[in-house]
């Protein structure tokens, strides 16, 4: 998406009708009649068709009645333009009207509040255009309405950009202003974790403020800090030397003052290392590269290549450790990984690096227990930042002038130390208060942001649900599972008691629900009744969710007015922002945003038009996504249909709003409910950072120039992220701005400014340093395969949106070939190895990951090799995956379990899930039973000659049944209990998705092929190479022009 100018009040596309300020007569809070297809106004009503609108059971209600002015059918609509749902009889239509009268307390907004608004209409069906008809997009009558303010954008710019005092009054009174003066003096302290606390924290990000229990506050003096944990360890780690020693000089490295005390952990020589790029030991070459004999005849296929000796990542992801060892104060690799830890010192050197120079950033990655991100409150001092480049104070700044000044490590400016922040420095330039200053010793900290970091009161967590209730949604059981799951999560939605919630359902019409618990004046409809405070309306919300499935039990409607529903949701949410969670079961068929079947034309594949199937056809979705982002709405899309749903279009909503796409093709409650339940639960209950923006700063001479993932750019380098959580990662590419870098070290700083669920503005800051190197070999030595694969995956998927799949695959292969050729040339003199493939040790798994990427769902094969929707969904998903999760998807875990299951002496929880097997059918013994786990699903494969005892133990009488209809559950025997323990381990190792288990028999096609064989990436399959062939091809191509 295009860049937006942050200084421009970019709300020109303000909807003409503001749902919260407009008079009731113009609200959209009515069920619309049959919606007009693709005309300018989605909400234009159809002429009355009495048969479609059975006599309403009530003649009045809290919602706008038909007497409201302005609800006139537009005469210009010709009947031929209308698409009407099939006529429905009263008996088959809508919920039983008595359904809500059963609700006891509190006095529900009587049944009618939650009733189909359709039923409330006594006159002609009337609808309100929520927007002026303007080409299908939200219309642009801007100025006369009060506008939601953009989030603070002060991260990148000095506070003068912030319109302080311009607080909009659109936030419900229930929301506390979190930054009362006294609050600023509260010192958050995270006490050392006790064991009980540790357990209770479970999988949530402990440092998040949304979980009040995990962030106990107590009064203390400003500034508050949490003791850096490593300093309490006697005899353990000593705080690193002050960065002053190698930072004090504006131009590059200069040795600091003579170091005499023995307490300094580094000798001067060692301290030079970061800046000087650690020397390669003379024997380094031997250690740093690997080679594989490919036979005496180079290029020959089957002579000499020992397939078993090919490198395989059976230990999973291995992080690059060298840079972290050089700079122990760097933030952890969970947060930031560079494709190479060696930053090239010149553009010419950078041009010889073919694997993408950049970083993968996961700003809210979960911290391991005991290593939580410390929270720092500068209180009235204000956050210490560089006056010029706005870098946050960090472990690599240098204090000089007896502690009165500090030098910025990013731009070298000498800043004054504010009086309140002053501390003496010792002979080594170390501040004496270092052990109370996590921001000066830890690579990751979180600052409490004062009022100037907000332009409106921090928003409350808000969840708005847009639920398809057409026939397939009901019959698949989706509606019931969704309603039950949302209800079960109500206690755990972050941000209580401020959390807001609302619902809208749709088929051919839209149905709004008034959730207000107490309606004193029920005849005056309030638009904001559609969004309520959860704790105030809890009973109503629960009652609604209980009755939602039965309300539509008899619904025969097959249509989907998705686009109009989306626009209505936008109007409801635009005042506050929040998370919009969409459950879509069919192809949107009515109104604006209506989509058509495409993608079934095999002739398009392999042509220049192929990519167009993978991008949205109708600009409506991209425009809506842009609007959502502006108003701080993140969109998550859950899609369920087995038929074409155009995920390419729907997913756009998630892509540009920092959201996520979940896909359950052919959803059937009986089979898929556990997966949906778990994933929806995580989505709703994981801690979330709201209305956030992220920027990555880096030192002079380098600049991040492109970003890849699910977000929208607000300016050249400011990522708008309406919602972020620990499961989202972003890639960024780095360029050298200057021909030659004169510094010895490059610093990076990721800053995420966000609103916590508890309503505080906070800034999560991660800082890292990396050495500048003058040698390509050093870049290879410090390469990080996981980061490279993550970046290349994103680039390749982006390429499929404008090119053929084949082109995207070729681009991956070409990069690997170029990189290995460059490497070979580097050592051509020393190693004239004939018939050997030479590659850097650090990149030994790159060929296999490259092959796996080419075979992954977004890139594999052609028309027949993946359903279009599946392909698009996988693309959207991978764009957001953190490194470890992606590597596991590309090279999944294969485990043999039959020995363990039958071994009666092995304890049930004793199974080691790290004993992974090569992903080839040669690993499969017909007598064995195996588990395949790619992080998204589990597959159990039963060999043809596997012991029947195992099958009986695990499946009982179901063993002979059709496996597509069998779901595995725990049985009362040791074997079954053991298997469930293994499942549990696999699932707990990464809870971001839930792996549903699929059973497969050897030889049972197409099931075995689909679930397992096509995912054994080392095997030759279809037109794609096996690992050995691929390796040989790379080798031959590396040799060409070598
Ligand atoms: Zn600076």
Automatic annotation (TrEMBL):
Residues 45-59 have a biased composition (Pro residues). The keyword Calcium does not apply. GO terms for cellular component: COPII vesicle coat; endoplasmic reticulum exit site; endoplasmic reticulum membrane; Golgi membrane. The keyword Acetylation does not apply. Residues 1-172, 192-212 are annotated as: Disordered. Residues 383-421 form the Zinc finger Sec23/Sec24-type domain. InterPro entries: ADF-H/Gelsolin-like_dom_sf, Beta-sandwich_Sec23_24, Gelsolin-like_dom, Gelsolin-like_dom_sf, Sec23/24_helical_dom, Sec23/24_helical_dom_sf, Sec23/24_trunk_dom, SEC23_SEC24_subfamily. Residues 89-100, 155-172 have a biased composition (Polar residues). Residues 689-773 form the Sec23/Sec24 beta-sandwich domain. Belongs to the SEC23/SEC24 family. SEC24 subfamily. This is Protein transport protein Sec24-like.
